[in-house]
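yo

u said u wanted the structure for the complex thing, so here. seqs first:
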Amino acid sequence: MRLLRPLVIAVGLILLWQGVVWIAQPAPFILPGPGRVAVAWADHHALILANAATTVTEILLGLVIGTGLGATSAMLLAQFRLARLWLLPALVASQAVPVFALAPLLVLWLGYGLASKVAMATLIIYFPVTATLFDGLRRTDPGWLDLAQVMNARPLSVLFRLRLPAALPALASGLRVATAVAPIGAVVGEWVGSGAGLGYLMLHANGRMQIDLLFAALLTLTVIAVALYFAVDAGMRRAIRWQPDTAPGDDPRS
Amino acid sequence: MTADPLDDPAGAERPPAVSVHNAQLVYATETLFAGLEFRLESGAITALLGPSGVGKTSLLRLIAGLAQPGEQGRVDCDDRRPIAGRIAYMAQADLLLPWLRVRDNVTAGARLRGETPEQGQAQSLLARVGMAGRGDAMPAMLSGGERQRAALARTLMENRPVVLMDEPFSALDAITRARLQELAVALLRGRTVLLVTHDPLEALRIADRIHVMAGRPATLDRALEIPGRGPRDIASPMLTSLYDDLMGRLSSADVAP
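structre next:
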């Protein structure tokens, strides 16, 4: 049932799409039906997959770098008062600048290649990771900290063996958000200026009225984003198996 | 292989007597206690008995080096060495880390100090508290009694001459509590122990000396010395009369200004 459910949802969405096409009868270059898009995917699969590889590389690099930078920042913020006083306001201010407005600048500075897209994805991932992990690091059970103090724990051990594991559930929330928005960063970067990637392919297909190809690329991006989200979600669940997982809806009394 | 800390408490060294001088705790405008003098005799279990909110835990935390803002006092050992690093602490909450197996929780102190944990020692201590087969379990799988047993093993693993216990058994059911009291008395023998409790029976059952702390600002009365060694049979006539004595002290202290 766990594997069947996403399949049922996907089939349902495709049927809905086909239904709209049957009823509204739009021109194929406005809204192509699922069949037409499937044919386009089959015809151009090599092209789509090659560009998908580029986008996936950008997203994954952005996730790794953004998570690394975000986690480091959060730990610096948690550990040093000076960092909280100076870095935190700068961090919040940096989030007031829309990343999309920065995209042309990043392309100008870092070029049309991979680097500017990875930078976009990193920027968009950095904040949720930093904010949630910092929050988690500050909420360690005071009892554990007392115990660690009486045990003469080293400050770094308290951070890495106590505060960090205790903050993992909070980090997991941030990583889920980050994973969901990471493709946006990469694709926006590709739209602004690039020669490869699914965003580039969509823009290219749009310009040539190959709307079926555009849809095929878009669906590929969606599948990648969803797969990535579930992979990260499963990974985090494994890492925090000790954390009781209860949803109010699962409560037999409610 | 190092010596078993249970047969050789604190490395054959006589555990220090610990005295607290001029302890004071002031919240905003209220004085919980001031000028308090308190002493833990070497190698004895001293119970600090009193109603909730009187400042027992604060006094324990002062000794543990966990004083809160507004709290001060001098803590000395009779061997003139500093007390820091010679204390093991056991709280009402078991404070097991939920992401570590029981075995790794027992060696948490070594991990947090960056030392190599002594797995053999941990295993034998788990056996001593009756948890031999539970080393690989996660804390979430344990019952309340098992969790406190694991916490007791972690406390003993520290092998410190002074042990501070803050109502460690008060969340347990009567039977489990009695078993753990017996276990604690047997395993902590030979160390300087402070047991904070609000339960006169618990104090009578396992302590060598009992101080009643009551009133506001709180005062400590002279220690009540309990003959014999714990765990004692609480049905004995001697304990019944001591119980009446304690209840008398608790209630008379209660009406003091």
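The first strand of chain B starts at residue 18 and ends at 27. Confidence is low (pLDDT under 50) at residues 1-5 of chain B.
cya
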